[in-house]
Amino acid sequence: MITTLRLEYFKIRRKRIGIMILLFLTVEILWAFMSISRSIASNPEHAIWESVIFTISSMNGLFMPIISAIVVSRICDMEHKGETWKMLVATNVSRGQLYVAKYLCANSLLLLGILTQTLLMIMFGLIKDFPGSPPSDLFARFILGTLLITLAVTALQQWISLVIKNQAFALCLGMLGGFIGMTAGLFPATIRHIFIWSYYLDLSPITYLFSESSSTYMKQPVDVVIIGIAVIMTTLFYIAGRIHVSRQEI
Amino acid sequence: MTASAIVQTQNLSKKYGSFNSVNRVDLHVQEGEIYGFLGPNGAGKTTTLKMLLGLVKPSEGTIKIFGESLNKNRPSILHRTGSLIESPSYYGHLTGLENMKVMQQLRNVPDKNVDEALRIVRLENHKNKKTEQYSLGMKQRLGIAMALLAFPKLLILDEPTNGLDPAGIGEIRELIKSLPSSYGITVLLSSHLLSEIDQIATSVGIISEGNLLFQGKMETLRKKSKSSIFLKTGDNSKAEHLLLTQGYCPVESDNWLVFENLIDTKVAEMNKFLVDHNIPVTRIEEHKKSLENIFLEITGKERSL
Questions:
Q1: CATH number at residue B275
Q2: CATH of the domain at B158
Q3: Is residue B295 part of a domain?
Q4: Which of A137, A153, B17, B36 could share a disulfide with B201, CB 3.0–4.6 Å?
């Protein structure tokens, strides 16, 4: 298992996956920080840690499904392109092992992205002189929540990327996910909760209450049901994908 | 099963819907052999080899490799088997050496094996080049190097000379021929080229439309290509009658008298004998069945391989 995972990291050299994650995150962060800066300029009360956590959480709904789709696709596509499945399986690498190695590899890279995002958020808050020290509990919940949804999204993406050789399908799914994630807030909760990409906001530690007089950021309690659904989706996507890929003839 | 059988299948079959891709094939590959698995395109060669490696599940039949059941001992069997199936497998964004390193990690073999395998296929000067920049022949050689990396007991090669130029084909042919004696490797290779199998293999299996039609030593197949003497005279029936009295065994076929296993002096004697008896000899021809004719006869296909 360790060998297979180590090989995954070896195999992605020159794939420029890290640079790609960084580029996408840079665009997202710049966009978010500009938006928050404008918001603070018009309403100084928004110069708080909650504003940056909420904004990034909502923007993750757009960016993370796309980044996840690209990362997973890059990791899986090399096996299709080089027709390496038969070589690996004939060398006694089980497809199950390979599946878990790719999953861990993709998610470890995305976790690094989430941690970088968090670091930049903290730096932004310190530069903007937000009151108080960075709220570690909120940032921890932000990291764990985003990671949990990412685990589910990558499980779905990996299933598609490994089963369908043409990566256009997987990338289109990622873009569709990004669109749903971005517009999720516009749908009623019952409809929204069908789609895993809308959970970035649901698992955010901060929510935004709109009212006619003034809108405010609020702490959002931990929703055990949403976490449960996300865990179930992750498990289902992962197991279904792994079984499907393992049973395919080469 | 005999003690020295490296690969043995029994009733090995693969069905796709109602189509029999491989039908009750009983392969028998002995230790130290170069076994040529010959058949036209679409005959079921690759499917059979894939089943031997566990890449495709048989619909029926059993596979024993090294005397062990593939179903029960797949990891241990694959540990001792190298393979190159269909086109070579490689990571295009990695260099030749990095591709070998991937295989090295999986096979858990020392660095010297990597150097040796690259040297054998003459890729040591291109090892730092990305494989996507390799020619098809270089990719094929890299595939063979990866299959050879652990110097396995059994090497399964599916059309190993595909995409190689004549010089490359010659090199790979010589390499394969040297493997049993130099490294103790038993080779099972498939090809649709009769000439290739003729030059490399010590044993041959001929498959067509999923059925194994011939299996045995190359010598046995070559013996089928013995020559016949075809004789035409002014009076074939009289000549046949006279020759029978002299101990010859002619068989009449399409206005010809055909003789098997006749040496040159006997042919000369027979000619003189007929002329002396006032039977004009109008034609004497030697017909020799080529291996290709034998192959076409066996497979029943009057078409190009």
A1: 3.30.70.270
A2: 3.40.50.300
A3: no
A4: B36
pLDDT in tens, A11-29: 999 999 999 999 999 999 9
**Chain centroid offset of residue B25 CA:** 16
Say how far apart CA B51 and CA B39 lie, in whole Å.
17
Answer yes or no: do A83 and B74 touch at CB < 8 A. no
Domain count along chain B:
3
Interface probe, candidates B63, B94, B188, chain A, greatest A C-beta count within 10 A? B94
Do both B75 and B12 map to the same domain? Answer: yes
B103 shares contact with chain A (CB less than 8 Å): yes
* C-alpha to C-alpha distance for B289 and B114, rounded to whole angstroms: 45
CA dihedral A118, A120, A126, A128 (to 10 degrees): -120
Q: Could you say which of B102, B123, B151 is where a domain stops? A: B151
Residue owning tokens 């890729």: B123
Closest residue by Cα to residue B163 from B197, B193, B206, B126:
B193
Complex-level ipTM: 0.88
> Looking at the DSSP assignment, which residues form a beta bridge with residue B259?
B229
Same domain (yes/no): B171, B65: yes
Chain B contact set for A85 (CB, 8 A): 89
Confidence of residue B147 (pLDDT cuts 50, 70, 90): very high
Q: Output the CA angle A91-B152-B163, nearest 5 degrees.
A: 75
Domain of B259 in residue numbering reads as 226-288
Does the beta-carbon distance from B90 to A82 stay under 8 Å? Answer: yes
B35 and B98 share one domain = no
**A90: closest chain B residue by CA:** B53
User: Is residue B68 located within the same domain as residue B105?
Assistant: no
Domain ranges in chain A are 2-247
Q: Are B54 and A90 within 8 A, CB to CB?
A: yes
Is pTM, for the whole model, over 0.80? yes
* Closest Cβ opposite residue B105 in set A3, A90, A249: A3
CA distance B143 to chain A (A): 9
